[in-house]
Amino acid sequence: MKILVIDDHALFREGLHYALKAIDSSIELLQADSLAQARIIVEEHLDLAMLLIDLEMPVNDGFEALDIFTTLYPTLPCVILSASTKRNDVNKALKEGALGFISKNSPAAALHNAMNLILSGEIYVPYSIMHAERRVNREKRIDLTPRQLQVMSLVIQGCPNKIIADKLNLAEPTVKMHLSAIFEKLNVHNRSAAIAKVREKQISIPEIN
Known about the structure:
The protein is an alpha/beta fold.
């Protein structure tokens, strides 16, 4: 099985060659250090099973290579092999025709499994990238309960705990509990910081008279 890796780092290409060969002796890894060299090799080896394309190359980046090869050889699986973990890079690669996005940090066995998955007709994106994206989204989202939003509204108005308790028909200890929960969710330690975080995150706060 012939695979072409396009990467300008010779040590990475050689390391990949020996790692994949140790796992699957049927793999013949061809190497190109530029888009120009890769085009020549592809024309000479029309039986290639896959292209592995690095995103960051000095002359032509991986997206340019991806565009060219998916246009000229639409049946040849093109896969991005990159150190990038940016969700935007993943989305762009898949949108432009890549059948997979494999991290350079993957162990050789994981890389081999991903390649086999792609060759079987699946699209591969590493769980680590997807998980990181979900974690970032969770960190960006701050969910305050309706009661906490009411408490925060009165905090913004400068009301002390006793006034908040009276306005919301709560006991003062309950107000303190709500404030502690709010501070924990906002990752702050006082009212001023909580107000600043609410404004920074553009959290919608109800108006309470």
